[in-house]
Structures are given as structure tokens and as C-alpha cells.
Design goal:
The complex is a heterodimer. Chain A is α/β, with parallel strands linked by helices. Chain A has helices at 3-34, 49-58, 72-78, 82-90, 123-136, 155-166, 186-189, 195-200, 214-229, 258-265, 269-279, 287-308, and strands spanning 64-68, 107-108, 113-117, 143-148, 171-177, 180-181, 184-185, 206-210, 235-240. Chain A starts with a helix and ends in a 20-residue tail after the last helix. Chain B has helices at residues 3-6, 12-26, 50-54, 66-78, 90-93, 97-104, 107-110, 140-143, 157-169, 218-231, 249-259, 274-286, 308-314, 318-330; strands spanning 8-11, 30-34, 59-61, 82-87, 120-125, 150-152, 174-179, 186-189, 202-205, 210-214, 236-240, 243-245, 262-269, 295-299.
């Protein structure tokens, strides 16, 4: 095996491993939700793993990420540990936000992962500002901003794209089009369903990508990120995808038929990559069971960690409403 | 050189502008953005000349996108800058409430102490210029409802000059409500006037008979009322709240404990208001100090009308304050 092939194989295994980690993490979360360990809103990412993995592989450690409320996959792919994310969802002190944010509000400033924003489109202006700070400081960095197709109907989407394009800021707008704004189908909430067209209206280069193909995501997001980093102003990438599970754990899925879900499942991003890698002999016998076992162990460990975690003392309820440090 | 000789004639507008200039010169992380702050020179001419002085990178004209540029201020603050965001008038801040309430006020607590938002927002507030029901309201009380942000209301030249400095050193978001009728306020200010605290209320006029609690655009009117009352032999103590969140209970309650009577003068509406909050705190914490019911002088509960006579009828006036004080002083337990 050549060096190049070895790199390709290890990269392929890494992509597969992270997608499997996200998938199994989400499945475990659903189970833990039914057991009452995780409460509140829980939005699962099953079906959309290729976007998180392809995107995060295209970014550098110094880049920033602003995400939305279906962000467990983004967090894990960015490098937050399964332990800290799971503990957060349990509401435990050992979680990435001391358990205060829960499923929808994962933050880790050490990884420049800024949420976890559960107001649809609310993260876009913040991403524009982070990019503005980088631009003013002449840092060649990218701020990746993830949001769903539902966000495209919000005013903040349009205000933010306009402002980023006007000021040529290094923002990478990543629209995860999973075809539903909660339960409202794209055709029922957008007069113009070609979402990339909206970005082009702001003078911003935009592409649409098969979000079920991790390699395509990585290639297109990587190219867009490079252009942004080079100072070419913001870019927009629409990632066409589908969530296989309900919007949240409360959703009886009255708005879509099973047939549609099953058709999309034929395009499962994990199986697509596995099939392609097997055909190219990059995935060998024994790899998949080994990866599954590794991932299962990571999740078992994360759940145990969360179980053993402690609750933040009630005395700290009001801590961090304001900073402890005051101007002298 | 005497202290008097060291002061210079200036205006509230000049004081704010000087404060911005000093901040820009002191700290390269500071920049200003907002609608028409650059070429136009600011809706209230506060930022005139700053674009020429600091250039378009640090004095940034924004599109009319309150949510985007306030959110961008939050993002820039998170990423290490010290932005000053100007919102042209308080009614427009409603278009940015998502960013102010759901992000600026929330991120530090929700992220378990990780994400500081050292953002300063300046907004013009208040009525009195016949600009009708979409440019005249006083939403500082509303903003003060929200934990996680600090709300200040400079009513003097010293505070107009000094609060911005301290606000920029605050690791948390600070909203500075500048009453639009104060920009032309003239007075003397030491050229080297520096930072002031943004923690405490201030007694602007001492008095023994009644406490007038007020802030912002109503301070002058309250002082005027106190002057008129003094001629009648009633000595009113005027407390300028200065900081509307968190409220400085100690200064307020200490004054009420001395005078045993309180009249609250607030340009906001009465229902569910800052004046209601103050009244509640006094009743909760100083009930047995009181010799009379707390009085409130607030703006009539109407959208601000355009014609002068109706606008003035809606707003708290000196006569109304004086009448409220007479009622409370005349009250016998």
C-alpha cells in the first residue's frame, strides 16, 4: 500500500468513525431520553452526519464555529468529548456548560465552538461579528455558521448575509437543508426553494452540495473555506440532507409519509461512505465491527461519566449572570 | 489654578463624543458601529468628525439591520474586540431584542461562565421632541427587566463622559440610555474628567422631607421641582438612580429612611414598570420607615402623540412632581 493510499484509508476510517460516533451517540441519547435521563428538547442529527464530519474536517482549530440547536453532531465532530456533551445533556456539572445549557446549548470556547443557538437564525449575526473581529485583527480565520433551511425565512438570515457580503467578512454560511423547518416542508415555507439563489442575490458565491456524501461535503466546504480564508469574502454552501428521525422527541411526524423517509434512508451517509470505501478496498473486513466496538465503548464511557456526574450546587444558581470581575 | 478655572464649558453631546474619542485612542480594540454614525455624523451629531479622525474601519456605518449589527457587536465582543454599538433610537432596539435578550444577556450564564460579552450599546431614549409614537418611548425599564445586562442612564455631563469608559471595562454587556433631550445640555466639566462608577445611585440634591427618585431625562425636571418646593419650605432629596440594573437599593433605601417619604419620577409608563419595581422594593424593605404612601409620577399610558400640547400633557411635568410631593408631605400618619 502506498503512503497516499494509507492516508486515504486512515482518513476514510476517521470519517466513518466520527459519523458512527454521532449516529450511535444520538441513538443512545434517544434511549436515555425515554429513561428520563435527558429532558427538555432533544433534536437528533441522525441522517445528517456527513455535514458535521465533512465540515469540521474542512476547518482549522483556530477557526470559529457557530451552530444551532441540532448540534450534538457538530460538537462531537469539532472535538468536544462525548463525555462533556453527554454530561451536559444530563444537566451535570461536568458537562461542557456545567449542565446549564443542555442539548440545545453546547459551548466550548477552547475549541471556539460558540453554541448551540436555539433561536432560529439567531447565531448568524453573532458569526458575522466573530468574523468582523478576525478581519479587524487581520487574522486569516474562518467563522463557520451552521443553520437550517428554516432560518432562511428569518430576517436575521437576510440581514446577516447582506452585512457579511457588504463588509466582505470571512464567514462561511452553511445551510443544512433537511427539507423541513420543524414540521413545515421547504415548499411550504419558501417562495423560492433554490436557497443558494438567495445568497447569490447578496453577491455571494454559493453552491449546493449533496449533504449525504461526506466526501462531497468536505471537498465543497473545504474549497469555500479556502476562498473565505484567502480574503474573498463570505461564501454560502447549501447542504442538501434529511433527518431520519422526528424533529424532536415530542414530534409524532404527522407531516411526512414513511415512504419519503425510507427513500432518503437509501442514501444513508454512513452506508454510502462504507459502500464506496469497500469498493475501493479502503474499508476492509473487520474494520466496521472494530469501529462500531470503539464507538460503543466511547459512548458507554460517556454515559457512565454522565451518570457519575454531580449536580451544580444550587448556591451557584446566580453565578455568571454577571461576571465575578467588576471594573475597578 | 483653581478647580473652577480648570473646567470648560461643554455639552452632553460633546461629553459623549469626547468619551468615544478617548476610548478609541486608549484601546485599539474599541470600534463604533451603527446607523449613520460615520458620514452623516450620527443622528444626534454625537459622532460627527469621528470618521475623519479614525477612518471607516473603526467608525462603521451599518445598513438598517439592527439585529445583524447588534449581533455582530456581540460576536465581535466574544472574539476579543470592545465594540460600541449605537442604536439610533430606543424604539429601533426592539428590532434587535433577540440579540440583546437571547444572546447578550444569556451567553455567560448559559455557557457556564465561558462566554463573556463585553459589549456596549448606546441608545437614544425618551420623548420631548415631537417625534411621535415610534421614536419617543422609554424602554430602559423594560430592558432593566432582563438579568445579565447592565442598564445605565447618564443624566449629567460627568456621567455622559465617564460611564462609557467604565462600561467598556465591564466584562458584561452594558446598555447606555442617553435621553435625547439631554444632548444640548450645557455645563462645566473638567477636561480631565475620567471614568465614573456604574454601580451606585447618587444624591444630586440633599433634603430632609421627601426623596425624589429619578434618572435620565427626568433628573433636571425633578431638580427643578425640588427648587420650587424649597421656596415653600419643603426640602426634597433628589436621588439620580444612574444604574437601572442592578438597582442600587442601598442608596435608595438610605435616603427613604432619612426622609420617610418617596416620590418616583419615571418617564416610562406606570404599569409593570421601573417605577413599580422601585415602589415594591421600598415597600418590601422600608415599609416601617414610611410616613406616607409612595407616589409615582409617570408618563400617561398612551403611545406618545405628536402635537406639543398632548406630548407635554403625557409627560411628567414639574407641576405634577410638586403636587405629588405636596400630597406625600401633607399626609399624616
Amino acid at each position: 500500500m502506498t503512503v497516499e493510499a494509507t492516508i486515504t484509508r486512515s482518513e476514510t476510517l476517521e470519517r466513518l468513525r466520527t459519523m458512527l460516533l454521532i449516529r450511535r451517540f444520538e441513538e443512545a441519547s434517544a434511549q436515555l431520553y425515554t429513561q428520563g435521563k435527558i429532558r427538555g428538547f432533544l433534536h437528533l442529527y441522525v441522517g445528517e452526519e456527513a455535514i458535521a464530519v465533512g465540515t469540521m474536517r474542512s476547518l482549522r482549530a483556530e477557526d470559529s464555529v457557530v451552530s444551532h440547536y441540532r448540534e450534538h453532531g457538530h460538537a462531537l465532530a469539532r472535538g468536544l468529548s462525548a463525555r462533556s456533551v453527554m454530561a451536559e445533556m444530563f444537566g451535570k456539572l461536568q458537562g461542557c456548560c456545567r449542565g446549564r445549557g443542555g442539548s440545545m446549548h453546547l459551548f466550548d470556547t477552547s475549541l471556539k465552538f460558540y453554541g448551540g443557538n436555539a433561536i432560529v437564525a439567531g447565531g448568524l449575526p453573532v458569526a458575522v461579528g466573530i468574523a468582523l473581529a478576525d478581519a479587524l485583527a487581520r487574522r486569516p480565520l474562518v467563522t463557520a455558521c451552521l443553520f437550517g433551511d428554516g432560518a432562511v425565512a428569518e430576517g436575521e438570515f437576510h440581514e446577516s448575509l447582506n452585512l457579511a457580503a457588504l463588509w466582505k467578512l470571512p464567514v462561511l454560511f452553511l445551510c443544512e437543508n433537511n427539507r423541513y423547518a420543524m414540521g413545515t416542508a421547504l415548499e411550504r415555507h419558501q417562495a423560492q426553494t433554490d436557497l443558494a439563489l438567495k445568497a447569490r442575490a447578496y453577491g455571494m458565491p454559493a453552491v449546493s452540495v449533496d449533504g449525504m456524501d461526506v466526501q462531497a461535503v468536505e471537498r465543497e466546504v473545504g474549497e469555500a473555506a479556502a476562498a473565505v480564508r484567502a480574503g474573498g469574502g463570505p461564501r454560502f454552501v447549501e447542504l442538501q440532507s434529511y433527518r431520519f428521525r422526528a424533529h424532536s422527541m415530542y414530534d409524532p411526524e404527522l407531516y411526512r409519509d414513511r415512504g419519503e423517509v425510507e427513500r432518503w434512508k437509501q442514501r444513508d451517509p454512513i452506508e454510502t461512505l462504507a459502500r464506496r470505501a469497500t469498493e475501493a478496498s479502503l474499508l476492509q473486513e473487520g474494520d466496521r465491527p472494530r469501529l462500531e466496538a470503539e464507538v460503543a465503548e466511547v459512548i458507554r464511557d460517556a454515559v457512565a461519566f454522565a451518570e457519575e456526574g454531580t449536580w451544580e450546587p444550587v448556591e451557584e444558581l446566580t453565578r455568571f449572570v454577571y461576571s465575578d470581575r467588576r471594573p475597578s | 489654578v483653581s478647580a473652577v478655572a480648570a473646567t470648560a464649558r461643554t455639552t452632553y453631546r460633546e461629553a459623549v463624543r469626547t468619551a468615544i474619542i478617548e476610548a478609541m485612542e486608549r484601546d485599539p480594540r474599541v470600534f463604533l458601529m451603527g446607523e449613520d454614525v460615520g458620514r452623516y455624523g450620527g443622528c444626534y451629531a454625537v459622532t460627527r468628525g469621528l470618521l475623519e479622525r479614525f477612518g471607516p474601519e473603526r467608525i462603521r456605518d451599518t445598513p438598517l439591520s439592527e439585529s445583524a449589527f447588534v449581533g455582530a457587536g456581540i460576536g465581535a465582543a466574544i472574539a476579543g474586540m470592545r465594540p460600541i454599538v449605537e442604536i439610533m433610537t430606543v424604539n429601533f432596539s426592539l428590532l434587535a431584542l433577540d440579540q440583546i435578550v437571547n444572546n447578550a444577556a444569556t451567553l455567560l450564564h448559559m455557557s457556564g461562565g465561558q462566554v463573556n460579552v463585553p459589549l456596549v450599546i448606546r441608545l437614544a431614549t425618551g420623548a420631548g421632541r415631537q417625534v411621535a409614537a415610534q421614536h419617543s418611548h422609554s424602554f430602559e425599564g423594560w430592558s432593566a427587566h432582563v438579568p445579565g445586562i447592565r442598564i445605565v442612564a447618564p443624566a449629567t455631563l460627568e456621567d455622559a463622559r465617564g460611564m462609557l469608559w467604565t462600561a467598556l471595562e465591564d466584562p458584561d454587556p452594558v446598555l447606555i440610555f442617553e435621553h435625547a433631550t439631554l444632548y444640548n445640555l450645557e455645563g462645566d466639566l473638567a477636561p480631565e474628567a475620567g471614568p465614573v462608577d456604574i454601580e451606585r445611585a447618587a444624591v444630586r440634591r440633599p433634603g430632609r422631607d421627601v426623596t425624589l427618585l429619578t434618572y435620565g431625562g427626568m433628573l433636571r425636571r425633578s431638580l427643578e421641582a425640588a427648587g420650587a418646593l424649597s421656596a415653600e419650605g419643603i426640602e426634597a432629596e433628589v436621588v439620580d438612580l444612574r444604574v437601572l440594573r442592578p438597582l442600587d437599593d442601598r442608596t435608595v433605601l438610605a435616603s427613604v429612611a432619612r426622609t420617610r417619604r418617596a416620590v418616583i419620577v419615571d418617564e416610562g409608563w406606570r404599569s409593570g414598570s421601573l417605577s413599580a419595581e422601585l415602589c415594591a422594593r421600598i415597600v418590601e424593605q422600608a415599609f416601617y420607615d414610611l410616613d406616607a404612601p409612595v407616589e409615582r409620577v409617570c408618563t400617561a399610558e398612551v403611545p406618545m402623540p405628536y402635537p406639543h400640547h398632548l406630548e407635554q400633557a403625557a409627560l411628567p411635568q414639574v407641576e405634577g412632581i410638586v403636587a405629588a410631593v405636596r400630597r406625600t408631605v401633607g399626609h399624616r400618619v
